[in-house]
Amino acid sequence: MTESSRTDTPETGDKAEANRRHAEKMKRRKALQERTLASKTIEKGLLMVHTGKGKGKSTAAFGLMMRAVGHGMRVGMVQFVKGAWSTGETVALERFEDLVDFHTMGEGFTWDTQDRARDVAAAEAAWAKARAMMDDPHYRLIVLDELNIALRMDYLPLDEVLAVLAARRPDLHVCVTGRNAKPELIAAADLVTEMTLVKHPFEAGVKAQAGIEF
User: Fold this and answer.
1) How far apart are CA 35 and CA 37, in angstroms?
2) Rounded to an integer, what distance in angstroms lies between the CA atom of residue 153 and that of residue 110?
3) Is a pLDDT exceeding 60 seen at residue 116?
4) Among the listed residues 43, 80, 26, 33, the one whose alpha carbon sits nearest the alpha carbon of residue 58
5) What is the pTM of this model?
6) Which strands form 173-177's sheet, in the order they lie side by side?
């Protein structure tokens, strides 16, 4: 290529000024970010809540479990509602059996069992398992999947659940999933994420599919 055939041109004055302003803006933003990060000094076990009508509450909790496993942490999950489904997440995490424990304690959704006494008994058994896991110092993260549903249906006493969660050891992270989280649980939590339903393929007649819903 000859010198005369090159297409690149010197930066115009306007473009150079725009780049200069952008660099200054990013420099100020970086300094602010560094000051903000430096001011955050607390390290503690978090109570996290995934709620809302949108898809992804349990999926996000499984992602947390994978992240913790990646750091060599021992994690556990107690499923309060879902029955003995085979899901991609459980199959994948079973490969880390030295770090992951699953306890599927539910018998399916309430419209499946159609028996309140049976649902209450299942929720109580799941809560007993959850309490035992929270007392075990080997766990760093415990996911209480669909506990919000058990609380909404009054299968468990809310005051007791809140008291146990508040009294957990300081380094234990707990993630509670399920729509319609109780306001008292939201108030007690450190991190609350609401999944908002905007659009779902189920509304268009698309069935649950492997790799997406399970």
Assistant:
1) 6
2) 9
3) yes
4) 80
5) 0.82
6) 100-104, 74-79, 139-145, 173-177, 47-51, 191-194
